[in-house]
Structures are given as C-alpha cells and as structure tokens.
Design a protein that fits this description.
2 domains, 441 residues, Ferritin, mainly alpha
Length: 441
C-alpha cells in the first residue's frame, strides 16, 4: 500500500515537472522571439526618422508648387509666403507622425489606443486639407486645366450646333411660305380668267390675291437671303472651335493658353448669338399674324350690283382661306420657337487647384499619389504597433509564477538560506529559569 502511494506521488511529481518544463520552454521561445523583434526594431529605428523627414520634405516641395500656382503675384512676398507655408506643412507632417510612431505602439489599454487612433484620423484629415490637394494640383494641375478647356470646347460645340440647327429649322419655314405664296399666285391667275368671281380681268379680287402673294414673296426672299449669313456664321464658329481645340493641346504654359482660349471663347459666344438672331422663325410668326389681319380691301369695281356682290362674296371666301393659311404658318413658326434653345455657355478661367478638385475623377492616380505621400507613415505606425504587441506577448510569461525578477530571486535565495541555517547564538534569560536542583547522594 505504501509502495503504491509512493509511485503515485512520483508520477504526479514527474507530470508537474514536465508541465513546468513545457511552460519554461514556451517562455524561453517567447523571450527569444521578443529579442529578435526588438533587435529588428532597433535597426529600423536608426533610419525611420530620416525616411520620415524625406517624405515630409517631398510633400512640402509639392505643396510649394501647388501654392505658387494659386498665387497670382510673382513677387518676393509671394515667394516667401509659399516657402513658409510649405515649411510649416513639412514640419507638421514630421512632428505628427513622429508622435504617433513613438506613442501609439506602446499603448497598452484599448482606451488609450482608441484615442490615439482617433487623433491619427483627425490629423490625417488635416494633412489632406492643408497639403494633399495642393500636391495633387502640382502633380496634375496643368492636365486638369486642359481638361477644363476641352470640356468647355465640347459645351461650345454643342451650343453652336444647337443654335445652327434651330436656325435651319427656321429656314425650313421658307418652304411653307413659298407654298402659301404659290397658292395665292395660282388663285390670282384663275381670277384673271374669271375662274373665281366670274368676272375676268384684274379687278378687286385679283388685287387682294396679288397683295398677299407679294407680301409672301417678300418674306420668302428675306428668308432666302438669310442662308448666306447663316452659313458664314456657322463656318466662322467651326473655325474658332478648331483654334480652341488647338490651344487645348498646344505646348507651353497653360496660363498663357488660357488667356488666348478666353479671347476665342468671347468671339464664339458672339457667333452663337448671331446665329440666334438670324433665325427667321419670329419673323414668320409675326408675318403669319399680319397675313389675315392686315388686308387692304380694294373698291369693288364691277359694272353692276350683281358683279359687285360676286366680288364681295369671293373676297369674303378668300379672307377665310387667308386666315386658315395664316394659322398654318403661325403653327409651323410656333413649333420652331418652342424648340429648346441652345444652352448658354460662359467660359470661366479656373486655377490648377480648382481644376483638380472639379475633375478629380479623371485624375484618381494623381490624387492617390498626393495622399499616399502624406499618409504613408500611417502604415509604419501600424507595423510598429504590431511589432510592439509581439514583443510584449513574448516577454510576458504564460505562468505568472515564473515572472520573477533578479531582485526577487535574490531575496528568495536569502530567505531560504536564513531558514536553513540555525542561529549561532541563542539568548537565554537565566533570571526567570528556576534553579537546578542539586542531587544529594
């Protein structure tokens, strides 16, 4: 029985020491891993500040270029202002990321880490606001302004084509006017032969028909005369558009090209206005209104009352027909006038920074590079935070009992020696001890 108990105790002791051995091995591996990571961090820390400074200086340079593009004055004061702003941006970026590289990785509680992450997000937004958009302006500002010029050319081309289309629709009214004029001319020929009123010759009915035929002929001639100015204005507008397209892609500073582009835009706007004014639709509309309302009735010149009555009846019928034809012309002119007009295009010069913001979708790579050069240290902060967490995990043992410092181990050894060593001198109090009895033999 005693032997069995001793065997169980020995087995438990071996199991305990085996587990302790495993724990010690794990702690040893963790410490070794922590030392390795710490050594790498020490080596990386030797040039991290220099790399961060280079990134900050590079961002400051592009910020300087962006600021110079915004300042109209090229004097010494503007130069000093741009240098001061870029230097402030470089300093702010370097100090901000240096703080986070040192403090965020060593935070142990979730609350402190959360507050520092929030500070990093706010600081990153501030960096984008004061630097990244200027970097993007320096990287793609000229291309963005050229994009603005090209977009403006497209708008002007659409407006020119629309104005020309509406004007041609007005010219098409000349066919309706010519058809109405021809109908009155044919009726006048019939009246000359007596086909309408029964009275051959050039009497009152003939004069009414001739009057309206001549009015429509004059309107038709006026419409036909507009063809040459319309064609000339459209050709001039296309020539201006060609020069504007050439300025969009021409070599040289985009600021100088923008000035020439603005001058051409003013000329093209005048051409578009001229095309709108050359439209004959309003003229046809007014002529159609006057066609039936402004009729000069001649004196009935028949020899007898019966002839005069026939002339009066024929004139009355002609006035009804005239009103119908006028309504038809007015409806056709109203359709042209109801067409959506050409859009009003006004060229507005734009700076490189504003152009980059307005056409940001077209320059996503430039924006990505401008933001990355400012926010790349955020990745370094995360890497260092992960490395510091690995170091802490390796240095903290699995068993808290093994977390003894050297001082604690020395104190424990001293205590054990004190318990194992008997005192050399033991004090005795003989005053209270009773006297030893003497034995009498």
């Amino acid at each position: 029985m005693v032997s069995s108990i001793e065997n169980n105790q020995n087995s438990a002791t071996l199991t305990y020491f085996y587990k302790r051995r495993l724990i010690l091995n794990q702690d040893t591996n963790g410490l070794r891993h922590a030392r390795d990571v710490e050594g790498h961090l020490t080596w990386l820390d030797s040039f991290t500040s220099a790399a961060l400074g280079i990134l900050a200086v590079a961002s400051g340079i592009y910020t300087y270029l962006g600021v110079r593009g915004l300042l109209d004055d090229s004097g010494a004061l503007s130069l000093f202002a741009a240098i001061a702003y870029s230097a402030a941006v470089s300093t702010g970026i370097f100090v901000f990321w240096s703080y986070l590289l040192r403090l965020l990785p060593v935070m142990r509680t979730a609350a402190t880490r959360l507050w520092l992450v929030l500070a990093m997000v706010i600081g990153s937004g501030a960096i984008i606001a004061m630097s990244s958009w200027l970097n993007a302006a320096a990287l793609a500002g000229s291309a963005a302004v050229e994009q603005h010029l090209a977009r403006t050319v497209q708008d002007y081309q659409s407006s020119l084509e629309r104005a020309h289309e509406i004007t041609l629709q007005g010219q098409a009214l000349g066919l309706d006017v010519g058809r109405t004029r021809q109908s009155f001319a044919d009726l006048s020929e019939q009246e000359a032969g007596g086909g309408l009123s029964g009275l051959a010759g050039r009497g009152a009915v003939f004069r009414v028909l001739t009057q309206k035929s001549d009015e429509l002929a004059a309107l038709e001639q006026l419409i036909r005369a507009q063809e040459t100015p319309i064609a000339g204005a459209f050709a001039e507008g296309n020539a201006i558009l060609s020069r504007m397209r050439a300025l969009t892609v021409a070599p040289g500073a985009v600021e100088d090209r923008s000035v020439q582009f603005s001058e051409e835009a003013v000329r093209l706007a005048g051409v578009i206005t001229t095309l709108r004014q050359l439209s004959v639709a309003p003229l046809v509309d007014r002529a159609a209104r006057d066609l039936a309302q402004s009729v000069v009735l001649p004196r009935l010149d028949a020899d007898n009352a019966g002839g005069q009555a026939a002339q009066q009846a024929t004139i009355t019928s002609l006035l009804e027909v005239l009103a119908q034809r006028a309504d038809t012309l007015q409806a056709a002119a109203s359709d042209v006038l109801a067409l959506p007009p050409a859009s009003e295009v006004i060229y507005t010069p734009i700076s490189t920074a504003d152009a980059v913001i307005r056409y940001a979708r077209n320059f996503a790579p430039s924006w990505a590079g401008a933001i990355a050069i400012d926010l790349l240290p955020a990745v370094l902060v995360m890497i260092v935070a992960v490395a510091q967490a690995a170091i802490r995990a390796g240095r903290e043992p699995a068993d808290p009992q093994n977390a003894l410092t050297v001082a604690e181990l020395q104190a424990a050894v001293i205590a054990m020696r004190a318990m194992q060593t008997e005192p050399s001198e033991t004090p005795h109090d003989t005053s209270e001890r009773p006297p030893t009895p003497r034995v009498v033999e």
